[in-house]
Amino acid sequence: MTTRVIIVDDQAMVRAGFAALLAAQSDIDVVGEAPDGAQGVELSRRTHPDVVLMDVRMPEMDGLEAARRLLSPPSGVTHRPRVLMLTTFDVDDYVYEALRAGASGFLLKDAPPADLIAAVRVVASGDALLAPSVTRRLIADFAQQRPASRGRPALRLKGLTERETEVLTLVARGQSNTEIAKTLVLAEQTVKTHVSRVLTKLDLRDRAQAVVFAYESGLVAPGE
Fold this sequence. Notes:
By secondary structure, the chain is of the alpha/beta class. The chain has eleven helices and five strands, in the order E-H-E-H-E-H-E-H-E-H-H-H-H-H-H-H. The chain has helices spanning 12-23, 37-47, 63-71, 93-101, 113-124, 133-144, 152-156, 162-172, 177-184, 188-202, 207-217; strands at residues 3-8, 28-34, 51-55, 82-87, 106-108.
């Protein structure tokens, strides 16, 4: 199955480089490019990509606002792509806000080409790009700056079983399914089932939103 991708970045050379790299992959089809968030949203509405590579800082409309519009579309718009944020900085408040909006992760622009290709595939598969330690640090840093929301998010945790709560805690600490399986002495498929149930019960789209929810509900504290 071919993954349809659009690239939204205000630097033409960056767009061209990423497009050439991704288009060379047999399972990835670059269906468009845009120089700012507003045009990126319009392009996505028109081409229905599976994944949007979204720069964080752009003129006209930045990547954060564009991600919000793509992931919380108006009534009548049913298409919601996966959004992978691109940034030059390893710590950026915009990226945290984008994760809260539903983006599936982020990637540094200077990452090796193989990482970009892998990131697109990971996000297209429905998972979140949370493996890099910098992502965990970023989420922890900004969660620490925002007091946990002890109201509604914390109440929603009561709907989880004890095992599901354990799994969510380990997801928030950046563990993969394989690592969680080893920690809890479970089969990896069982872990996948628990993660799926957690996302369904909490009405979360993917692991990225699960991590943010865990911090904001107070289940996991920064620095643990």
